[in-house]
Automatic annotation (TrEMBL):
PANTHER family named among the record's database cross-references: PECANEX (PTHR12372), PECANEX-LIKE PROTEIN 2 (PTHR12372:SF5)
This protein's name: Pecanex-like protein
Membrane topology term: Multi-pass membrane protein
Location(s), subcellular: Membrane
Regions that span the bilayer: 36-52, 58-76, 318-337, 343-360, 372-392, 428-452, 464-484, 534-557, 563-583, 622-643, 676-694, 722-743, 755-779
Length: 1397
């Protein structure tokens, strides 16, 4: 604990105050010294330049100061950038250690040696030096430093910097694996000096027992060795030694001196006298300085990253240099202006030093963000607030320490999002590009509307005549507000649709490059939904503009005032109260937290396991109707009435009022269209407050309503924060997770006033209020957008498509349970994408708004759904799936969610019971002190139910293993016979020659590690093996039956090539199983391991069976699917053993499973595709390794409707706990897995919320990308509205309703219409047997004859006349309009074919 506090003070508190500088004991002296001198330079340079140099505050002085800082930054950034480029692209060479390099130089080269005064022994002659460049092995090239004297240091350094390396996404610093052999051979050749004459004496190392072999070295190379050996160790310690060895190469004509420079502190005596020690090899990077000139750098990337932050490209470096220049410029100006005096001058220089230092080395990290981009953040906020809030600059270090300011991109998203929501009625942003797109879109629309409004109000007008321009402005306002409310804040899908329409050739070429099997269907579904919205808006906006123009031009709002406004206000209040308060309360699990069950129950409420989708109830239809009436008629009428009245009053006023009116109308309309859940409360309060309480402060109604909408938005946030605080710190239910919580509980009581002040401030700025270390002490965090998290984090499932082949062979890919089970949350996300928006609009989740958080809880799936954006007919959300088998704390909180309180009879300390259909007093009291509430108990979603069986139990007995082998061999025969290449294999000469031994009846397979009497049905005990005769005795009947089912007959007698191939494949399959089982098939563990290996598709083929490589389809399409099918057949034999023994039944079962069942390994990409494509049934074999247990589970998935509980959580509780985890783990570095902040707290669901954080803060099993759900994909909403309104749907409706009668009348001359009507009405559907009735109409006959027949496909009415009746098994929910023609050549006939029960 003490070391953690010291680390927090050093790397957290001190680093925040200094802008990032602190002493890191894990780094070497060189890095720490550079950091210290850099920070001192930035701190003292303004003092030195302005006060010691005493330069006058002129433009020349400003230019000198700014130029000096800029040049300094340019130099450092250039060197840093060039070194990283060298690590990425440079060549690697190997040289000996420092002691060997400093032995001497070639006797034929001109050289000068400089040594420290304490090392006179090094000033001796040597006949040569070792080769400078040698060939590297891959192992040596991978490591940045191969010094053998400090192996422990290397391990520590790699562990500490592994995360940074992964974050940077850098390749290994070594590059010898990429070098060609020719380049390596060139490196091995010694560099020979063409000038053999040399005047330099030979330097001989003192104490050298054996002279090194003489090698030539280029005379024009310079070796510079800087050694700092201040310690007393005999060996070089890499943490205390800085070695920069530079070898410069030039042309032979310009040969110069070659020297070796050492610092005054030389190596120890022991280092000089170690004659038997082998020199260690060092890795050097070639840094090209000029053409033909290069230097060798003994350095590595990890040390450089610890020294300076890396800027990825030239643009980032340019921005950093520019920001440093601006900081220097503004700092110099403010100091010369005399804005700071005495001590505050030093404090301001400290701020300057912090800003400039953070551009080179960011704080690691600060309380604001887990992302290391604080450099831009510091400088940008400094520049933005420097001139306008000079006093604020004093608080920069404290603000950074407490984490009150976000990083720059988060701040921009938050700032633009708040402006768009509160002033323009926009929705939440999903990123920086989204925020910029939304604000630009809103400003463009506002500019257009302002022009129309200003033109309409430029001249006065009377009550009897409203200018057409103003009516056009109102129509345009309604249309654009409606269209903006229907569009998502993420423009990527819209741009993708536009790109596909404008450049279809480019889109087709890109689509051809992608495999159709691996294409994700979700983007196309989203694109089609966006297309439907655009087509629908085209029609709706046209109709709405005409109606709006007509209503506003009719002067109804001016002529009938104030009667119209009073009626509209009363109507809005009544409809809003019923729609958003009364109906949701009656549908809750505990209405008003007093009633024990819902008053308005769904049909599924009383069902134990619903098998069908949720039924549409009458109150849901009523809710949708009232909601549509409210947001499409009532509120637009109120706003248009206010616009008309205010426009009439403002016709002589200034343009500023016109701008406010335009902004208010746009914001209120967009808000009403998107989510009017709380609009009626705001409207009622606006009327009461400004009409009765403070009428003197009232402006126009439109501005009053606009102002109150902003105020009420903050009041709802304040209410949520107060509720969260009161629930969290309630003393009778406090959950102390640690001793600190027990101390903080009474300590927080005297600071209630400060807590209230923090609550008000955080509400104003929309910032989370987080509990400090999970205790009762609350602190303010930095502002965040509705999305909350900076990164677009989403889980990437690991399978065979994105993992290395060696990991697939040596170990099971993604065998972690969380990785395997994440597919179920991914499928749940797809289900929500189809139904979430429609279910929200049907009121199945209760009232909702942006930022709300819900928990979906079922038997094994527990997911947190975060609603980010709420639009008109669309919802953007993110799902965070929790672990199946969670921790103890998670299980306790899940129990609190699932357990009911209906049986509670307590009232204080006694148990008097409760009234019928009501809760007890204790239960009602406890429900009111929870940060969550159950809104729905039976919410149905399409998902997969999981059933698992222990494979060890099913294969424990030898007879069961023998049965599995039997099914395995029978499946091989089946897949071989149905393969279209069978005829080719039977006729191929090379394969027949390889299978010649298997055609002999006396051939015996005697491998005791493969064949055994215990597991092989065809094993001959007396022969100790398997023969062709014994194989035919067991499997010949099955071979002949499968062959009889073929379209082309194949010879299948005992001596046929087919039997030979089947026998050979059976031997190969069993031998592959024995090899995978390590030749220990008799052991259950080994047998399961081998079978699981084959199930994954890993076949180790013995040399005897290499004939199978003639065609790999024999393994991929015969043996591999046979392994998987045998597992399913083995599952079935427990329920129908007698049936599977019959060849006909077995053949039919395999054929059925081939088409209806997906059997594959979970790491196979086909498994994910099958799940996401909603296949009905799936089977797999899972190897589970957890807590020392090694189990094999047979997993079966069945698609059905899963029942979830929907729990709504206080969104401020979620934001506060997330912010607290981010500060605790990143800034305070509390990595204790049992820390108090994640202990269970049933009243706040603390563990479930904290575990849903982004990794590494939390440990969610799956985090989905931001997904948008559209109303048009919901089946029941499409039934209510008959699909999206478009030109095509209107044309279809006109044909079906109006033209049907005319067409039927025109055909009456040739056909009796009464018979046609009777025939059509007689078409019925039988659900028990796939049977339908057809109607035929014959030419020239006065009456049509009815014919009944059985069919499994489509049926035709009238023979070939094109009138088609859908198959009864069709899933089309609506009556089909089917085209046809009569016998007289009349126009197309549309007949409504209905299905009768």
């Amino acid at each position: 604990m003490g070391s953690q506090v010291v680390q927090t003070l050093r790397q957290g508190v001190w680093a925040s105050l200094t802008g990032g500088w602190y002493h890191d004991p894990h780094q070497n002296k060189f890095n720490n010294s550079c950091h210290l001198y850099l920070w001192l330079f930035f701190l003292s340079f303004p003092f030195f330049f302005l006060y010691f140099c005493a330069l006058p505050p002129t433009t020349l002085a400003l230019s000198i100061y700014c130029a000096s800082v800029t040049a300094f930054f340019i130099l450092i950034k250039m060197v840093n950038y060039r070194l990283h480029v060298m690590f990425d692209e440079g060549d690697i060479v190997a040289q000996n250690s420092v002691s060997d390099i400093s032995k001497g130089v070639d006797k034929k080269s001109n050289c000068v040696a400089f040594a420290g005064p304490d090392d006179t022994s090094s000033q001796k002659r040597s006949k040569g030096r070792r080769e400078a460049e040698e060939r590297l092995t891959p192992e040596e090239a991978f490591s940045p430093n191969t010094d053998q004297s400090a192996p422990l240091l290397q391990r520590e350094q790699r562990q500490q910097t592994h995360l940074d390396t992964a974050d940077e996404g850098l390749p290994p610093s070594a590059g010898s694996e990429e070098e060609s052999d020719e380049e390596a051979d060139k490196k091995k050749e010694p560099t020979v000096d063409p000038n053999n004459n040399s005047s330099c004496p030979e330097l001989i190392r003192q104490g050298e027992e054996q002279e090194e072999p003489e090698e030539t070295y280029c005379s024009d190379e310079i070796a510079v060795v800087l050694v700092d050996n201040s310690g007393t160790s005999a060996h070089l310690d890499e943490s205390d030694t800085v070695k920069i060895i530079i070898t410069m190469s030039c042309d032979p004509q310009t040969c110069g001196c070659v020297g070796s420079l050492q610092e005054e502190d030389s190596l120890d005596e022991s280092s000089d006298t170690t004659t038997q020690e082998k020199p260690s090899r060092k890795l050097y990077y070639k840094l090209k300085v000029f053409p033909g000139k290069w230097i060798n750098i003994l350095y590595d990337r990890l040390t450089l990253l610890a020294l300076l932050d890396r800027n990825q490209d030239v643009k980032e470096n340019m921005v950093a240099v520019f920001l440093a220049f601006l900081v220097a410029f503004l700092g110099f100006v403010l100091l010369n202006q005399g804005c700071f005096k005495d001590f505050w001058v030093f404090q301001f220089c400290l701020v300057i030093a912090s800003c400039q230092y953070s551009l080179l080395k960011s704080v690691q990290p600060d309380a604001a963000s887990p992302i290391h981009v604080m450099s831009v953040f510091h400088a940008h906020l400094y520049l933005n607030f420097l001139f306008f809030f000079l006093g604020f600059t004093y608080c920069f270090p404290i603000s950074f320490l407490l984490g009150l300011l976000p990083q720059i991109n988060t701040f921009f998203i938050y700032f633009l999002e708040q402006i768009d929501m509160h002033f323009f009625g926009g929705t939440a942003a999903t990123g920086l590009c989204s925020a910029v797109y939304c604000i630009v879109r809103s400003l463009a629309v506002l500019t257009l509307l302002y022009g129309f409004c200003f033109g309409a109000l430029k001249e006065p007008w009377d009550e009897q005549h409203i200018p057409a321009l103003f009516s056009g402005f109102c129509a345009l306002l309604v249309v654009l507000s409606y269209h903006l409310s229907r569009q998502s804040s993420d423009p990527s899908m819209l741009f993708s649709l536009i790109k596909s329409k404008l450049m279809p050739a480019l889109g087709d070429s890109e689509a051809e490059e992608v495999d159709t099997d691996n294409v994700d269907p979700l983007p196309e579904k989203l694109k089609s939904s966006v297309k439907e919205i655009l087509l629908s808006d085209l029609v709706v906006c046209t109709v709405a503009s005409v109606l709006t123009f007509a209503v506003t031009a009719s002067t109804v709002f001016l002529s009938l005032r104030p009667f119209v406004t009073i009626v509209l206000y009363a109507l809005a209040a009544t409809v809003g109260f019923v729609t958003h308060y009364l109906i949701p309360q009656l549908r809750k699990h505990h209405p008003w937290l007093w009633i024990s069950h819902p008053v308005l129950k769904s049909k599924e409420y009383s069902q134990f396991e619903p098998t069908d989708d949720a039924q549409l109830m009458w109150f849901e239809r009523l809710y949708v109707g009232l909601l549509s009436f409210e947001k499409y008629i009532v509120y637009p009428a109120i706003i248009l009435s206010a616009l008309t009245n205010d426009g009439f009053a403002l016709s002589h006023r200034k343009s500023c009022d016109v701008l406010l009116m335009t902004v208010a109308g746009m914001k209120l309309l967009r808000t009403s269209f998107c989510n009017p859940s709380y609009q009626f409360v705001t409207l009622i309060f606006t009327i009461v407050f400004f009409e009765f309480d403070y009428s003197s402060a009232s402006e126009t109604f439109l501005l009053n309503f606009f102002l109150m909408s902003i105020v009420f938005h903050k009041l709802w946030d304040l209410l949520h924060k107060l509720h969260f605080i009161m629930v969290y710190i309630a003393p009778w239910q406090i959950a102390w997770g640690s001793a600190f919580h027990a101390f903080a509980q009474p300590f927080a009581v005297p600071h209630s006033a400060m807590l209230l002040l923090q609550t008000l401030i955080t509400t104003l700025f929309y910032t989370p209020l987080s509990p400090f270390l999970g205790s009762a002490i609350f602190i303010t965090s930095y502002p965040r957008p509705v999305k909350f998290w900076e990164r677009n984090y989403n889980t990437k499932r690991i399978d065979n498509s994105n993992s290395r082949l060696v990991s697939q062979v040596d170990k099971e890919t993604g065998c972690d349970d969380n990785n395997l089970n994440s597919i179920f949350y991914e499928y749940l996300t797809r289900s929500l994408q189809h139904s979430l928006c429609g279910d929200l609009l049907l009121g199945r989740w209760g009232n909702f708004s942006m930022g709300d958080c819900f928990i979906l809880a079922s038997d094994y799936l527990n997911a947190l759904v975060h609603i980010v954006e709420v639009g008109n007919g669309l919802v953007t959300f993110q799902l965070r799936g929790l672990e199946f088998r969670g921790t103890y704390c998670q299980q306790r909180e899940v129990e609190a969610i699932t357990e009911g309180v209906e049986e509670d009879d307590g009232c204080c300390c006694c148990e008097p019971g409760h009234l019928p259909h009501l809760l007890s007093c204790n239960a009602a009291f406890n429900l009111r002190w929870l940060a969550w509430e159950v809104t729905t108990t039976k919410y149905l979603l399409e998902g997969y139910s999981i059933s698992e069986n222990n494979a060890a139990t099913m294969l424990q007995v030898y007879d069961l293993r023998k049965l599995l082998i039997t099914y395995y061999l029978k499946s091989i025969i089946y897949y071989l016979v149905i393969n279209p290449k069978l005829q080719t294999w039977l006729k191929e000469q090379s394969m027949q020659e390889a299978l010649q031994p298997y055609s002999k009846w006396h051939h015996i397979e005697r491998d005791p590690a493969v064949f055994s009497v215990k597991i092989d049905e065809d094993y001959v005990h007396c022969l100790q093996g398997v023969t062709r005769a014994s194989y035919c005795n067991v499997y010949l009947e099955w071979i002949q039956y499968c062959a009889s089912k073929m379209e082309d007959p194949v010879d299948s007698d005992e001596d046929s090539p087919l039997v030979t191939l089947c026998f050979a494949l059976s031997v190969l399959g069993r031998r592959a199983l024995g090899t995978a089982s390590h030749n220990m098939s008799n052991s259950l563990e080994s047998f399961l391991y081998g079978f699981n290996t084959l199930f994954k598709g890993d076949f180790r083929i013995a040399s005897k069976d290499e004939w199978v490589f003639a065609d790999m389809d024999l393994l991929q399409k015969v043996v591999a699917p046979a392994v998987r099918m045998s597992l399913k057949l083995h599952q079935d034999h427990f329920t129908s053993l007698e049936e599977t023994e019959e060849p006909a039944v077995l053949h039919e079962a395999i054929s059925t499973y081939r088409s209806s069942l997906v059997i594959c390994d979970e790491s196979d990409p086909a498994w994910r595709r099958a799940v996401l494509s909603s296949r009905d049934t799936l089977l797999t074999l899972r190897h589970m390794v957890d807590d020392g247990t090694d189990e094999y589970k047979i997993i079966m998935l069945y698609k059905r409707y899963l029942s979830f509980k929907v729990i709504k959580i206080n969104k401020e509780c979620v934001r506060g706990l997330w912010a607290g985890q981010q500060q605790e783990l990143i800034f305070l570095r509390n990595r204790n897995p049992e820390r108090g902040s994640i202990q269970n707290s049933k009243q706040a669901l603390r563990n479930m919320i904290n575990s849903s954080c982004d990794q590494p803060l939390g440990y969610p099993m799956y985090v989905s990308p931001l997904t948008t759900s559209y109303m048009g994909t919901h089946k029941q909403m499409r039934n209510i509205w008959d699909g999206p309104l478009s030109l095509e749907s209107i044309r279809t409706w006109l044909f079906s309703r109006w033209l049907r009668k005319d067409n039927l009348t025109s055909c009456n001359s040739g056909v009796n219409m009464e018979d046609v009507d009777c025939a059509v009405s007689s078409v019925s559907q039988n659900h028990n047997s796939i049977t339908s009735q057809s109607v035929s109409m014959h030419l020239g006959r006065p009456r049509s004859s009815q014919t009944r027949h059985h069919s499994t496909g489509s049926e035709k009415i009238g023979g070939s006349h094109g009138l088609e009746v859908r198959d009864p098994a069709s899933k089309t929910p609506n009556p089909q309009l089917l085209p046809g023609r009569c016998g007289l050549g009349c126009p197309p006939l549309w007949v409504s074919v209905l299905t009768a029960p």
